[in-house]
C-alpha cells in the first residue's frame, strides 16, 4: 500500500474526473471537508470520516468550504507513488501561473494508471 497526505485549499476544484483499475483508494478525512463525487453521487468526507473508492469507479473531488482540507489517501496495492505528484507538479509549473494543459495532465495520468473521464 501507499499512503500520502493531501492538502486541498479552500475553493479548490479537481475538474478531472478519473478512474483507476490497478488499485482501490481509501480517503480518510483529517481536517476540513472535501466533497467526493463517486459514480455521480456526492459524498462529504470530514475529520474522522472515510470513503472507499473501488477500482474502476469514476470520481473527483472539490473543497467547497471556506477553509483548507486535509485527507489521508491510502492506495492498495501501492502502485501510485511520488512520481505521479512530481509529474503533475511539473505540468502545473510549466503553465507559469495559468491553467495547466489538460492534454499534458491526461498524459501524466495515463502514465501512472489513471484514466481521465471527460
Describe this structure in words.
The protein is an alpha+beta fold. The chain has one domain (2-117): Jelly Rolls (Sandwich). Helices cover 19% and strands 45% of the residues. It contains 2 helices and 9 strands. The chain has a 5-stranded antiparallel beta sheet with strand order 5-4-7-2-9, covered by helices on one side. Strand 4 (34-38) and strand 5 form a beta hairpin. The N and C termini lie far apart (28 Å). The model has no long low-confidence stretch (mean pLDDT 93). This is Cupin domain. Residues 6-75 form the Cupin type-2 domain. Pfam families: Cupin_2. It comes from Gaiella occulta.
Q: How can the largest sheet be summarized?
A: 5 strands, antiparallel
* Main sheet strand line-up: 5-4-7-2-9
Number of domains: 1
Strand content range: 35-45%
Amino acid at each position: 500500500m501507499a499512503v500520502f497526505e493531501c492538502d486541498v485549499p479552500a475553493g479548490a476544484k479537481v475538474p478531472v474526473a478519473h478512474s483507476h483499475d490497478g488499485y482501490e483508494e481509501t480517503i480518510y478525512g483529517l481536517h476540513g471537508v472535501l466533497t467526493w463525487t463517486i459514480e455521480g453521487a456526492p459524498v462529504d468526507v470530514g475529520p474522522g470520516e472515510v470513503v472507499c473508492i473501488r477500482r474502476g469507479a469514476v470520481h473527483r473531488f472539490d473543497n467547497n468550504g471556506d477553509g483548507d482540507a486535509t485527507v489521508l489517501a491510502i492506495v492498495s496495492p501501492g502502485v501510485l507513488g511520488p512520481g505521479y505528484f512530481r509529474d503533475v507538479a511539473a505540468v502545473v509549473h510549466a503553465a507559469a501561473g495559468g491553467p495547466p494543459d489538460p492534454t499534458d495532465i491526461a498524459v501524466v495520468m495515463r502514465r501512472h494508471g489513471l484514466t481521465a473521464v471527460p
